[in-house]
Design brief:
By secondary structure, this protein is α+β, with helices and mostly antiparallel strands. The chain contains 2 helices and 7 strands, in the order E-H-E-E-H-E-E-E-E.
C-alpha cells in the first residue's frame, strides 16, 4: 500500500526575503506573513510588517485561513543584554 504525501515548496523570492530578514539590522519588531497557494502548492509571501506588536499582528490575521509568520522582536534580558529572537508561528483558526 503506497501513500502520497504532498509537500509545498517555498517560493524562491520568499526564501531570499527570509534570509535577509534573519540577518536584518533594524531594531524594531517586524514580521513576514506567509500563506500557501493551493493551486501551485507553494508557500508565498502575503505581507511584510515593520514596527508591529504581537497584538497588532493578531489583528492582521485572517479569521478563516491559516497563516505562517516569522516574527522578530526586541528582548531585553534581566542582565541588560538585548537580543532579537526570531520566532516561527503557525496560526490556524478554530475549525480549520
Amino acid at each position: 500500500m503506497s501513500s502520497s504525501l504532498v509537500v509545498c515548496e517555498v517560493d524562491v523570492s520568499l526564501q531570499e526575503k527570509l534570509k535577509k530578514f534573519r540577518f536584518r539590522k533594524e531594531t524594531s519588531n517586524a514580521a513576514i506573513l506567509m500563506k500557501i497557494d493551493m493551486e501551485k502548492q507553494l508557500v508565498v509571501l502575503e505581507e511584510e510588517y515593520e514596527n508591529i506588536s504581537l497584538d497588532e499582528l493578531r489583528e492582521e490575521l485572517p479569521e478563516r485561513q491559516p497563516r505562517y509568520i516569522v516574527y522578530s522582536y526586541k528582548l531585553t534580558h534581566g542582565d541588560g543584554r538585548v537580543s532579537y529572537p526570531l520566532c516561527f508561528i503557525f496560526s490556524s483558526p478554530v475549525g480549520e
